[in-house]
Task: structure prediction
Amino acid sequence: MKKVYLVNWDVSINSMFKVRKDEYELLGTSHKDADILVFDGGPDVTPELYGEKRLSCTGSDRMKEQHNKFFFESYPEKLKVGICFGGQYLNVMSGGAMWQNVNNHSRPHHMTNLLNINDKFKKGQDILVTSTHHQMMISSKEGEILAFANEATEFLSANKRPNPDYDTEVVWYEKTRSLCFQPHPEYSSEAAMSTREYFFDLLKYLVE
Result:
């Protein structure tokens, strides 16, 4: 059984781990004993963290980022899992950047899985996922893209860069042990159900 600590307590994320009490034990304050640190959703990542000026479409929470930074830097050996903003934050802290605005990501859509996780989720399989964000991860060269979509047609950045060939949805950084997961497995909808199933199977794959 893996011990899980929620860096920022979120009732929905707490509930989805609680249901899997045979596999995961949720910790209260003893984060030092955790095997997995979970970073939840929130606003946008501060652009200065990835070397860009802030555009008017971007809003951030410096206090939350400072709180997250303590856990990111204090436990390099622990598995770190970020959902939505949490995933985007881990991506930036692992050397990645962000598109400060993209379109067509305020609705459920399909993303393509790039791993042979198990008999249920194979490489090349499309998965219905949630989507409520307006920014998109740009992986660094050290990131392994695990899933992508083809929804966005507009990409806004403060720095000049070519539009990507796909929308990066899930990234793994082996060096920082960070899983960056943009969809929301904690939501309660049809898309969230398949997102959650994929999320936990992927997490189990990485843990094992």
